[in-house]
Amino acid sequence: MSARTVRLLVIAMLALALPFAAACGGSEKKVTIGTKFDQPGLAVKKPDGTMAGFDVDVATYVAGQLGFKPDEIEWKEAPSGQRETLIQNGQVDYIVATYSITDARKQKVDFAGPYLITGQSLLVRADNTDITGAESLQNGKRLCSVSGSTPAQRIKDKYPGVQLQQYDTYSACIEALRNGAIDAVSTDEVILAGFAAQFPAAFKIIGKPFSTERYGIGLRKGDSELRQKINDALVKMQRDGDWKAAFDKNLGPAGITAPPPPPLDTGTSAGPAQGQQIWSKYSGQIFRAFWTTIQLTVFAAIGALILGTILAAMRLSPVPMLNWLGTAYVNVVRNTPLTLIILFCSFGLAQTLGITLADPKSPTSIADSNFRLAVLGLTVYTASFVCETIRSGVNTIPLGQAEAARSLGLTFGQNMRMVLLPQAFRAVIVPLGSVLIALTKNTTIASAIGVAEAALLMKEMIENTAALLAVGSIFAVGFLVLTLPLGLLFGWLGKRWAVAR
Ligand code: GLU
């Protein structure tokens, strides 16, 4: 081979290999960081796709110390309620997102830092005069915060009289505050200041902060090597003055002066809470939540029994129009998921059409309205099953009886009331019991619109204690205590009242 051919071959091989090397290198070297996309001053995703804010600068500095250039960072939105899950599932390497270090969260993830200390505060419209602090919210004011955040939890624990609306993001709360749907927003002062600066003259922050929020960088539990590296990066950022520069640049315009950078935590993570601690802390709330479950079941059962009987009468009646309507109702409602029906009641009826089923001035209007809408949804859904159960009961009655009743001169209504329905009910007591048991369990869907029943409390307890098995078992037993006796009772009644033929 001549020297020229060898040279050509080497060039050709390099030309082939280079794109591969670049591709491999490129895909390997990436860090995924979770942050907020909608909190001005802290972390915002701008329309051109670039990121800005104090949290973004801290995250970028840390990434730099870990060996990643800014263009090797992939940003992932980390809403308050999803942060632990994002870390546990490995969807992010670490999270810098106004993320308070708490014992409950330390059971699921580890934290580096803290890198900033702030506190919970209140934001109201600039022309408001009657909200002076958290206490003053208790007389029927509507407050917005974010689900899965420490401020929302603190309001629920300390100020149970406040009507709390929870959304997934603070920008949704700010929008509701602007259009008057709620009266105040509560979260950390730095977050509120960022929003206040974005809409000057529209809002004001009320009073002094009433909690201590220590922002940490969340990472996978047990990864002490990464935690140490991030802590080293934070120390360097503070020592070199980059920390203060980032604070002044991002939060200075919002009128907050940089506090002294906090010392780092040395403590290690906590283990999950134990069954006994959980029970002593939550037993009162568990009974209250199951009481709501029982109330939902009883009201919806009464409604469904009435509506279901009317529907069954319609489907059995000789009037074709009623017959058709009954059949259409059953087929549409029975085949629609209950979650959709309940969400429709809340978003369709209440929010879009303004049918809230509660006095908007009442101090408990949000909770009352959600409860009644859930009863409505459960009634509408369960009625279709009740209707079909009763209809099958009517089919057990020999045809001759209805004919005999007609020939005696009874009208359709009299025939239904005096001959058919009494026997039909007695024939279907056991299957009606099954419908009632299904309804009891279906009430858990009401948690989707924020009704404080058993499933909602279960979610909150799992979030706060990280003891999935213990909490799950408590609620499973709770439902068994409700449903087992129902099954036994209906079985016994069914035997006792069976129609002897
Ligand atoms: N720092 C609080 C928390 O971590 C509130 C801010 C937020 O929701 O991101 O829950």
Automatic annotation (TrEMBL):
Q: Which GO terms describe its cellular component?
A: ATP-binding cassette (ABC) transporter complex
The portions of this protein that span the membrane are 290-316, 337-358, 424-446, 466-493
Name the source's superkingdom: Bacteria
Task: Name the Gene Ontology biological process terms.
Answer: amino acid transport
Q: Where does the signal sequence lie?
A: 1-23
Q: How does it sit in the membrane?
A: Multi-pass membrane protein
Q: What is this protein called?
A: ABC transmembrane type-1 domain-containing protein
